[in-house]
Amino acid sequence: MNILDLDYLLVLYINKYLIPQFNALFIFLMHFVYGVFLILVLYYFFKKQETISYRLILIFLIGILIITFLKYAIGRPRPYEAYPEIKTALVKQDSSFPSMHAFISFLSASFLPITISKRYRYLIYFYLLVFIPLLLMYMGIHYLSDVVMGAFIGILLPKIVSENIFNKLTKYFHKK
After folding, report:
1. The 3-state secondary structure of 3-45, one letter per residue
2. Would you give the DSSP letter of residue 22?
3. Distance between terminal CA atoms of the chain?
4. CA nearest 11: which of 168, 138, 173?
5. How far is CA 56 from the centre of its chain?
């Protein structure tokens, strides 16, 4: 058994519990991750921490470029396209690998302000780091490996585009 078999079996197991009556709610919750991202950008902007907002936007744009490139370079079909027994509530036009939603979830989680009360912060972490990845597989639109790679990019990019590097880039472009 290889990793692709495990990917398939995990999605098949989670997806078998798909309840069509909840599709609209789950689609909303899946896409709300973009709302969380926007809320974070606006939060830092209105808290007069514009550099964090700009850094978050830059990382987001770099991530979109990387993920879009990988999606088209690899061209992995989505689980529901590859296996007719996997149901879906949402038909997507792009490839499966890696997951953009997982990228946005993990990127947003890495920028959550510590000023949020612990209880709410843990709820948001659960939503971003556990619920969204499971939901992507439950909906039959991603394999575990898609989610892991999207998460990896969402964790790694903020480290690469660190505050120090962002400040150097800002100074460099302001000189010109």
Report:
1. HHHHHHHHHHHHHCCCCHHHHHHHHHHHHHHHHHHHHHHHHHH
2. G
3. 55
4. 138
5. 14
Q: How far is CA 3 from CA 27, 101, 108, in A?
A: 27, 21, 28
**10-residue block means of pLDDT along the chain (176 residues)?**
78 89 93 96 92 91 96 94 90 93 97 92 96 95 96 94 70 58
Query: What tokens were used for 107?
Result: 């990127």
How far apart CA 99 and CA 144 sit, in angstroms, is: 9
How many Cα atoms within 13 Å fall on the side-chain side of residue 156?
10
Are the C-beta atoms of residues 156 and 112 closer than 8 Å to each other? no
Q: Which two tokens stand for residue 136?
A: 């992507």
Predicted TM-score of the model (pTM): 0.90
What one-character DSSP code corresponds to residue 139? Answer: T
State the DSSP H helix or E strand holding residue 62, giving kind and residue range, or none if neither.
helix 50-74
Q: Residue 114 gets which letter from DSSP?
A: T
DSSP state of 17: T
